[in-house]
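Thread: "does anyone have the structure for this chain?"

Original post by V.I.:
We have the sequence but no experimental structure in hand. Need at least a predicted one for the grant figures.
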Amino acid sequence: MPAYEYEALDPSGRARRGIVSADSPHQARRELRRLRLTPLRLSAPRAERAGRLGGRRPPRLGHGAIVLVTRQLAALVAAATPLEEALNAVALQTEKPAARARLLAVRERVMEGWRFADALAEDPRSFSDLYRAVVAAGETSGDLAGALDRLATMLEKNRAMRNKALAALVYPAVLALVAGGVLTLLMTTVVPKIVEQFNAFGGELPAITRVVMGLSHFIGAYGLYLLVGVILLLAAFWRGMKTPAFKLAVDRALLRLPVIGRLLRGLDGARFARTLSTLVAGGAPLLDSLAGAQRTCANDYIRARLDGAIAMVREGASLANALRRAGALPPMMTHMAAAGERSGALPDLLDRAAAQLEDEFDAASTVALRLLEPAIIFAMGGAIMVIVISILLPILRLNALAAG
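Reply from O.Q.:
Generated one for you, tokens below.
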């Protein structure tokens, strides 16, 4: 049943805005009059109308919008609000037309008798397989409000972990880029002009000065080609990362690095544990939960190792033994899974494991950043010191010649 946005006047003369479902605009106006409202404007939602006229789908919902919608739905459903009314209320509160159109489309399907998870499947770009799996598990267990609340928490935690990982990578990269730019500027503009003055006096320059001059000439003559080559290499690497075999090899090599490997393993372990806890607590079967949690791992090598763990669980092995044999996730998570299976509190202990792994990641990334910043500054200072010495030595030699 189509939905229409309306503006109307109530019996007291106050303006009212909202959404009404009807088979046609005429029936929508009749429904408004039945509610003792005088219609002023009636139209399909803007995003939905644009999609029909332009033949294009509206853009997918952002991560922040999905988290907010999920949290609001969880609160309304927990307050015993019928799902279609909860969807309507959340749609009214949504400012973005695209999000409103999607929620209204889902509401239409729910009113037609569809399961909530099946209605969400009509927009897979916004609602992932994992999202729909959690919703389906909540519907099956009869605890949709709890499933939505756990889902919102999981999405928030995963987003926070992703933002922390990006921050840990972006800051040193920007610092190194700025340092490299300063050194390049010195080598291509400052050093050549100063050395020209020394050449005018003749005489042999110190070895360190000749080395710096050679680097300066090389950067001035071939710097542009070097930059183009680096860009081409990065582009080739980016295309290679879209190839499964190449990405698998790179991800496996990253896990072998001393500090980075541990951070990446802990990051994926926290995502896996948090998602598995949410799915199992929502009533999803263990195999389906493992498959859903596996998709949250960014490292392809870890995902490949988890394929073997899922196969072992399918054959009857315990979760802890399967994860231990896979050897892809931190050992602490394996111990927590074993304790959870013994005590019957697997979701709770997996959630604790995720929290501990997140804390370890925070601590390790903070220490790494604190060590990396002075290391970059020290390296930049050392390079500038070499440039300064290469300039001062000829000056001192010229002074000695003049004094002699």
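V.I.: this helps a lot. Residues 294 and 303 are 6 Å apart (CA to CA).
O.Q.: and The chain is about 75% helix and 5% strand.
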